[in-house]
């Protein structure tokens, strides 16, 4: 069989826009899925074509609501029961990744639970991008292709031709990521140290490093309420930075995130399309597509070719 005949691409409803871009770069149309909806909110996704003996790619980010994860699980089960030879689950944004450890008494490890659910449903391979914690790969007993948005962001930073470039991490957890970016860009590094009293609320923040008269780019894996990034931008400008930009792979953008970004001292905020961004709510947000990267890796996986050249950081 030809590649197009033996591979099948399907998507969850909320990731359709990104999936269509991935399919276009891959050179194949998305397969049809019929969603049966029941009056109580239950739904049933049904594959509208045979996948027997083929490689199935299921594309879907698992951001809230939980129905997005459930829909993906049901699609995996449907593919397995339809005799697909392999089921590769493409999860651009891996939801519940922040629950990667038991950091307080009687707390769940949500990222591990999701890994168990995906495997139990019948996934044979996972493909994702910029996990909140790299060790989540170890929660799986099946292959995990952990991609990085760095190849997308580094090219964009280079196109800006910024002098006196400094890469900043908005917290200690992102220090390694910031150092890696700085190494590729021959830039300096600064780190913001933050203290939280509760989730999504930054109590205090301190800067480690000098940013006077420098163009600063904040690097993070996700933007939720944008409170951390906006506070970091304020401190950087107070310390004499010339400009401050922010880059984050996953635009969660909950609560007053759009408003916070628009009112902030950030010159622009660059994100990818792992999660759909609402149009028109902030003129500062620029979206770069991760579709070409996913399509290239999917093609390489299908042809059993190495994907090591896709890992910049």
Please characterize this protein's 3D structure.
Helix 3 links the parallel strand 4 and strand 5. The chain has two domains: 166 residues, 3-Layer(aba) Sandwich (Rossmann fold), CATH 3.40.50.2020; 139 residues, Rossmann fold, CATH 3.40.50.2020. The model has no long low-confidence stretch (mean pLDDT 93). It has a seven-stranded mixed beta sheet, sandwiched between helices. The chain has a five-stranded parallel beta sheet with strand order 1-4-5-6-7, sandwiched between helices. Strands 2-3 form a two-stranded antiparallel sheet. It is α/β, with parallel strands linked by helices. The chain is 30% helix and 27% strand. It has nine helices and 14 strands. Keywords: ATP-binding, Kinase, Magnesium, Metal-binding, Nucleotide biosynthesis, Nucleotide-binding, Transferase. Its EC number is 2.7.6.1.
Average pLDDT metric:
93
Strand order of the largest sheet: 10-9-8-11-12-13-14
The CATH class of the largest domain turns out to be Alpha Beta
Domain unit count: 2
Give the N-terminus to C-terminus distance in angstroms: 36 Å
Give, in order, the helices and strands. HEHEEEHEHEEHEHEEEHEHEEH
Largest sheet features = 7 strands, mixed
**Can you tell me the CATH architecture of the largest domain?**
3-Layer(aba) Sandwich
Would you identify the regions where 5 or more consecutive residues have pLDDT less than 50? none
Number of strands: 14
CATH topology of the largest domain: Rossmann fold
- Percentage of residues in strands: 25-35%
The helical percent reads 25-40%
What structural class do you assign from the helix and strand content? alpha/beta
Number of helices: 9
């Amino acid at each position: 069989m030809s590649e197009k005949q033996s591979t099948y691409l399907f998507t969850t409803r909320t990731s359709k826009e990104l999936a269509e871009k991935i399919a276009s770069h891959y050179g194949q149309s998305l397969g049809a899925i019929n969603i049966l909806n029941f009056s109580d909110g239950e739904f049933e996704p049904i594959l509208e074509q045979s996948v027997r003996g083929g490689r199935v790619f299921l594309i879907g980010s698992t951001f809230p609501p939980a129905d997005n994860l459930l829909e993906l699980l049901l699609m995996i089960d449907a593919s397995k029961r339809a005799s697909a030879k392999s089921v590769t689950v493409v999860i651009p944004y891996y939801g519940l990744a922040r629950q990667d450890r038991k950091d307080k008494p009687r707390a769940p490890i949500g990222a591990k639970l999701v890994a168990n659910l995906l495997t139990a449903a019948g996934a044979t391979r996972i493909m994702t991008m910029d996990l909140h914690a790299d060790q989540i790969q170890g929660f799986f007993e099946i292959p995990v292709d952990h991609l990085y948005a760095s190849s997308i962001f580094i090219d964009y930073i280079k196109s800006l031709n910024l002098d006196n470039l400094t890469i900043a991490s908005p917290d200690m957890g992102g220090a390694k990521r910031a150092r890696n970016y700085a190494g590729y860009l021959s830039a300096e590094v600064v780190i913001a140290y933050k203290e939280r009293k509760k989730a999504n609320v930054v109590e205090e923040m301190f800067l480690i490093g000098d940013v006077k008269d420098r163009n600063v780019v904040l690097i993070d894996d996700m933007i939720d309420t944008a409170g951390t990034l906006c506070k970091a931008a304020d401190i950087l400008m107070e310390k004499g930075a010339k400009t401050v930009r922010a880059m984050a792979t996953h635009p969660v953008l909950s609560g007053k995130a759009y408003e916070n970004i628009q009112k902030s001292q950030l010159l622009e905020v660059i994100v990818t399309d792992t999660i759909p961004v609402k149009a028109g709510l902030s003129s500062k947000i620029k979206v770069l597509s991760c579709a070409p990267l996913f399509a290239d890796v999917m093609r390489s996986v299908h042809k059993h070719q190495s994907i090591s050249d896709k890992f910049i950081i």
